[in-house]
Each structure stands twice: as structure tokens, then as C-alpha cells.
Design goal:
The protein is α/β, with parallel strands linked by helices. It has helices spanning about 20-30, 85-95; strands at about 10-15, 30-40, 40-50, 50-60, 80, 100-110, 110-115, 125-130. It folds into 2 domains: about 10-60, 2,3-Dihydroxybiphenyl 1,2-Dioxygenase, domain 1; about 75-130, 2,3-Dihydroxybiphenyl 1,2-Dioxygenase, domain 1, CATH 3.10.180.10.
Length: about 130
């Protein structure tokens, strides 16, 4: 069994356009820029959400794109940000013409979710629990 060294998970995403991805995750969503690290296949741009590191990887050679959509391919399909202000987040994203995969929705009492697409079509989910 693994023993956690911190209370969160980190995520790495290989992106096709680092400028567009940094704009989306850093400028639009507000993740904090932490630093840049060279990796064997490109450059990692580290951002932070709470105690989680969100690593955008700019590859030396962009690999082929996988199938877009939650139900179209096996594997990790989306990332979730648990937030305290989902209505405000959704309003700001709509104002910036971000494409929604699922508008703000009550999924059960005390839980609202919304899903948008990042510049590569990856699904980004926001969850608010009351």
C-alpha cells in the first residue's frame, strides 16, 4: 500500500500549444505558476491548485491527438477542480467564450458540477459541494 507524502495528487498533461494551455489554466482559471523544468521529451510548466501540481508538458515533438470525449477512449478522461464558487467560475468562463461540455448542473442534493474543454479538448470538471 502506498503512503501519501501530501494530501493531493499531481497531474501531467502533454499539450499541443503551450501558449494556449498556459493562457487557459494560468490566466483564465487562475492556477499559480510555479516554474519550468526540462524533461527528456520537452519542457514541463508547473502550475499549482491548492497543494496539487498541474504540469503542462510542451513536447519536443507533438504526438498524435487521442480521441476527444469522456466516453470515446479508455484511460484518464478528465480532471476535477473542487471549488467554492462554481456559479462565478461558470459565468466568467462563459464571458470568455470557453466551450462547455456540460453546463452548471445539480447532480444530487448539495453537489453541482460543470465541465468545459481546454484548448486541446480535454475535459475540465468543476465541482462544488455544500
Amino acid at each position: 500500500m502506498i503512503v501519501p507524502a501530501k494530501d493531493s495528487l499531481d497531474l501531467g498533461i502533454v499539450v499541443s500549444d503551450i501558449k494556449a494551455s498556459l493562457n487557459f489554466y494560468q490566466n483564465i482559471l487562475g492556477l499559480e505558476f510555479v516554474g519550468i523544468t526540462p524533461v527528456w521529451f520537452g519542457t514541463m510548466h508547473r502550475l499549482r491548485f491548492g497543494t496539487s501540481d498541474f504540469k503542462l508538458i510542451e513536447p519536443k515533438t507533438v504526438p498524435p491527438r487521442g480521441t476527444i470525449g469522456l466516453e470515446n477512449q479508455l484511460g484518464y478522461r478528465y480532471v476535477t477542480f473542487v471549488v467554492k464558487n462554481i456559479s462565478q467560475v461558470c459565468s466568467e468562463l462563459k464571458d470568455k467564450a470557453i466551450e462547455f461540455a456540460l453546463p452548471e448542473t445539480d447532480v444530487r442534493p448539495g453537489m453541482r458540477i460543470a465541465m468545459v474543454k481546454d484548448p486541446d479538448g480535454n475535459i475540465v470538471e468543476f465541482v462544488e459541494r455544500s
